[in-house]
């Protein structure tokens, strides 16, 4: 495999993507403990929360409280999601030094999720990137619905490539390609990755698979074979976008680490600690973990 010798970085999105989609509001103390536990597992990037409108996502209304209270470990990055300048300013006031902006390849989804067309959303990012350059803040970019949209159905590949390329040219250091509703299959995922990588360097790409139909690990493997080196995942397989009908959890971080380590690709993550953290989280959420690796570890 072309990427076997490469260092694969996992972007843990559970505290943000996972907890934004819970039916009940999780106490800030639980969110803080989750992030502090994750910081001890060897993860290098933990997306901590989201400074979006609390009217749209009440689950993360405590973003400033959570971000201010978490232990910040040297060598770990704690990016946060921001949809607009207001979110950027709130994130900065709370001490964030890395943010992620997000749009989609599908107009219909973008309208539902952030009440803007793709063009409008990118216009909103321009002042964020300008400020971020001055503040020395890194900006990651998400492109959602890269393999299908819950409202529009098929999403033309050219739209995925166009939006990813625009976000990269705007100054996002990394573009995370999101299968928001977990509809893709490996061949389609590979084709999508290849098409985007023809315009944006593969070193600047990440993949973000929701596991609605059980295809996420297979999709990740096909993208690893294309040279991708950054994988988004969520501990315990939590996650989903409140504005994407039918989306379920992200691929579980435990399952991704197990697969990579089994392939001889070091992640620097302590799998036992990660499993313990996921089981602790599922206890807090009052349901079984979605990680098959964690479930097997309990049976063993
Ligand atoms: P809007 O209603 O069009 O915006 O929402 P607005 O500018 O008219 O503001 C409405 C109210 O929200 C105002 O308050 C603003 O001040 C306030 P009011 O005057 O009514 O009292 N407001 C804010 N408050 C705090 N922080 C802010 C902020 N912005 C406005 N940043 C908006 C537009 C973008 C704000 C809204 O649609 C929004 O916040 N959407 C976020 C939706 C979201 O978080 N979705 C999930 C994340 S994306 C995802 O999960 C996909 C991903 O995982 C990848 C994948 O899986 O594909 C990343
Ligand atoms: Mg997501």
Helix-strand blueprint:
Blueprint: E1 9-12, H1 14-18, H2 28-39, E2 45-46, E3 49-50, H3 63-69, E4 80-81, H4 85-93, E5 98-104, H5 107-114, H6 118-135, E6 138-144, H7 157-170, E7 174-179, H8 186-197, E8 205-209, H9 216-225, E9 230-233, H10 253-262, H11 271-285, H12 292-299
Parallel strand pairs: 1-2, 1-9, 3-4, 4-5, 5-6, 6-7, 7-8, 8-9
The structure holds 3-hydroxy-3-methylglutaryl-coenzyme A and magnesium ion (MG).
3-hydroxy-3-methylglutaryl-coenzyme A (HMG) binds at residues 17, 20, 50-57, 83-84, 86-87, 90, 102, 113-115, 142, 144, 178, 180, 208, 210, 241, 243.
Walkthrough of the structure:
It is a single chain. The relative contact order is 0.15. It is built from twelve helices and nine strands. The model has no long low-confidence stretch (mean pLDDT 96). Helix 2 runs parallel beside helix 3 and helix 2 runs antiparallel to helix 11. The radius of gyration is 17 Å and the shape is globular. With 300 residues, the protein is an alpha/beta fold. It has one domain: Aldolase class I (TIM Barrel), CATH 3.20.20. A nine-stranded parallel sheet has the order 2-1-9-8-7-6-5-4-3. Helix content is 43%, strand content 13%. The site of 3-hydroxy-3-methylglutaryl-coenzyme A has 27 residues, from helix 4, helix 5 and strand 6.
Spatial strand arrangement across the major sheet:
2-1-9-8-7-6-5-4-3
How would a textbook summarize the main sheet? 9 strands, parallel
The SS-based structural class is alpha/beta
Low-confidence stretches: none
